[in-house]
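Q: Okay, next protein. This is Unc-13 homolog D from Propithecus coquereli. I've checked the sequence twice, so it should be correct. Can you predict the 3D structure?
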Amino acid sequence: MATLLSRPQRRPPLLRQAIKIRRRRVRDPQDPIPQKEIEPPSHQLSPEERTLLYEEAVYTVLHRLGQPEPNHVIEASELLRYLQEAFHTEPEEHQRMLQRVRDLQKPIFCLKATVKQAKGILGKDVSGFSDPYCLLGIEQGVGVPGDSPGARRRQKAVVRHTIPEEQTHRTQVISQTLNPVWDETFILEFEDITNASFHLDMWDLDTVESVRQKLGELTDLHGLRRIFKEARKDKGQDDFLGNVVLRLQDLRCREDQWYPLEPCTETYPDRGQCHLQFQLIHKRRATAASRSQPSYTVHLHLLQQLVSHEVTQHQAGSTSWDGSLSPQAATILFLHATQKDLSDFHQSMAQWLAYSRLYQSLEFPSGCLLHPITSIEYQWIQGRLKAEQREELAASFSSLLAYGLSLIRRFRSVFPLSVSDSPVRLQSLLRVLVQMCKMKAFGELCPDSAPLSQLVTEALNPVLTASFLIQDIVGDLHQCKHTWNKIFQNALKIDLFSTAFLELQWLVAKRVKDHTVAVGSPVSPEVGESLFQLYVSLKELCQLHAVPSERDGVLALDGFHRWFQPAIPSWLQKTYSVALARVQRAVQMDQLVPLGELTKHSTSAVDLSTCFAQISHTARQLDWPDPEEAFMITVKFVEDTCRLALVYCSLIKARARELSAGQKDQGQAANMLCVVVNDMEQLRLVIGKLPTQLAWEALEQRVGAVLEQGQLRNTLHAQLQGALAGLGHEIRTGVRTLAEQLEVGIAKYIQKLVGVRESVSPEDAILPLMKFLEVKLCYMNTNLVQENFSSLLTLLWTHTVTELAEAAASQRSSPLASSRLKIALQNLEICFHAEGCGLLPEALHTATFQALQRDLELQAASSRELICKYFCSRIQQQAETTTEELGAVTVKASYRASEQKLRVELLSASSLLPLDSNGSSDPFVQLTLEPRHEFPELAARETQKHKKDLHPLFDETFEFLVSAEPCRKAGACLLLTVLDHDTLGADDLEGEAFLPLCDLPGLTGPEEPGEVPQTRLPLTYPAPNGDPILQLLESRKGDREAQVFVRLRRQRANCSGGPPAICLPACLFRPLAGGGGGGGSLGPGLQAQSLLREGERTLPNMSWGGVHY
């Protein structure tokens, strides 16, 4: 902090207190260091912490000061791109953060200036020395003198004359020296670096002395000249020794140089040099991290994030990180440490904590830890650390030591000789541990730690030594069996290998048995690991002598596996705990990004596959000889593997929630969910391989004699099926969640499709929906494996069809909206089929889809088209009717193209129902061409009425003048309506028959019809209710033609059987005397038109557009 430094004799009355940093003496801390072992915190940050850290890093880049260091990145855009990659930030989120940081208040810019010392300055006193002190400050808003002749003239009292007194700082006075040492630090604030300059003036303090005192200090003639010179100047006036003027924008973030003292005249051009250190720092940073956390903690988290990214990038490129940071990372960390004014010691400590934590989870050379160890040791002063920092550093030492010992304990597998650099890696690890344990910091913070040599010796316990002995014996026996034994066997028929094996196996058995007995029970994890290596070595030894001869007798190693039975629980627990830790670490490091275009799962799924493969490898190594115990061990392996699978599902879902928390980009969250689903699908494939990896078939053959039939299959397969069912449920849940996210958009676009204005064509109306689906489905196809994508398509198709059905039900009366929905359904079917790459036709054509397709086909049709469809359905009904419960009519009909006449001979009716009270009927037949809009000018015709006749013989002929084109259309038919004439009331309906016109002779071929066959048509009744076409027409309230048609058909239905509520007016069925182009009983056309007009007066709402019913 700043202190007031006064001159011994006097000081300017208004000279401001200097903001100054003094070095404090280091005192031993009074509070003891906690001795308990502290687990190092995880280097993973929560989403909230990562957001704050990202804000801090961006703020550092945007408020950069000074010239760049050599090999540092100059462009801010390149640094921001690197931060975006290192923090895995989406472009939209990056832009929002960038704008947010730009809106924050700028920091207070400061120059931290340290006046170290000077050398070779002028001696201004009669003694040949000076009493130097310095005045320094920052001049704002004025250019700095340059080297050109026209540059601003140097001023002798530049600080006093140009910088306000309250902004001027002063060092101590060093008496009688030409090489003063100050080592004082000042904090100088400035606003704009582009027009700010640093000024330092060095002065010789001149005190008032008598001539006698000065003569006493006289040493030579130069001193005498100084006495005469001082006699000419004012008493107490200080002498100018030189100055240093620098532009701030020319300085780097950190400077440490000797600067020449510039003269005000050329009398003494060489005035010595001044050693200055500069650092451009910030005060009052506006970021949330700077306001709420210590600078050291923020820098540690930033270092961990960037180093983790660097290591991951190297691993992705299949290279090992060598400890050197990229220029971008080095630049950002340097800027942050400088701006936050972090000491070199705290930077070294942050580097040690970050590297030591990451070394235990990521793979990089241990030699990267040596530099921070050396830096901490060189600068170690315990008193500068807070209590929590001491605890954190002690925990890092203990954690790395424990991790290093675990690697040493397994050094034969961790550093196998088959890998060329294994000895170098082991040597590097030992060197790091040795250097760490030699540190003063380690000795003070971990005083109770045993010597490293003792810890390593305990790690390399006797059991492990026995394992090494056995492996050496195995190697020698290999050589004996394949080399030496052949020589002795061929020459002397001596089996050297058997002799050597029998001798050595007794030695090995005794030593191993003694060790296993000494271990006892329970077995610790560390000892259990060593015992497992010993067990594997013994198995390999026994396999060399796989077929002992009878003369060998009982071998000492027979049944050796029983010696290791107490260690089995430890082995199984160790296998599970190691696998669980690896799964947790893999998930925590997973950024839920696909590995590539073809590999759509993430890194944790790969690590999990490797983890399960390692479990299977352990099971194969164990290969327990006892069948029943081997079965129980396999059950445990399967149980642990299935449990790990379900744990992984929970962890990966939690990881997705963690990464997507606070994500405003829904696409990023959906992408992560896709990766999660793919990871689970990959896990299901891996789990499905367990029977093969654990050799269930071979195990089943071994345990057949000791287990009940089917017990193994039932137990193991039940475990496996339970795990697969759980994974299937998790996958379906994930796919269901993805589908729900898309279903909202689909429903929204379908509603927009229905509500679009009428002027928009159906093709343009469905375009937004199709674009939405194209983008989303392409995205999902890219990010999901095929199985999950097909499941997603099925869910989306079901939902889409349901939404369309609901929309269609609400738009029954709107042909235009229904037409759009119909076209949308057709395009969606094509979209989801995707030329055979999507859903299969049987998956698309569900019952709901087929019903919707039929409904939309009807709803999209015009009223006239619906009327045609109605008659098509009645024609179909007529063709399917085989019984004559209502009676039948017999006709002969043909078309003469030359005359454009339709000739109908109505021959007879038979088996009619008696509708009168006398048990008979008075039948007649009405003939009309339907639909009426196709034959608007043709009136209905009627036969003569027959009294009390249920089998009338009409034998009447009718001709209709009509062109062939409307007769060939679908639905065109001759409607034969058989009625019972009532004198006092309305006529009753006996039944009706429909004769399709398109199949009549004369219309089906170019030739004129010859002999026309008779056609017998059973009579039918119209359905009173439930006809969908009539219901649809009835819903079109604004369509008069539809309403008239429905009303007439309903009246016809009501007239069939029993007293009708509404019947057709009798005038419509009155016999006509002639008309049209025919003879017979037809009346003139004028009379027919008169009768139709009478019908219109009776039913005024039943005619529209010139069409009469």
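A: Here is a summary of the prediction. Residues 118-140+158-180+191-273 form a domain with the Immunoglobulin-like fold (CATH 2.60.40.150). Residues 711-755 form the longest helix (45 residues).
Q: Noted. On to the next one.
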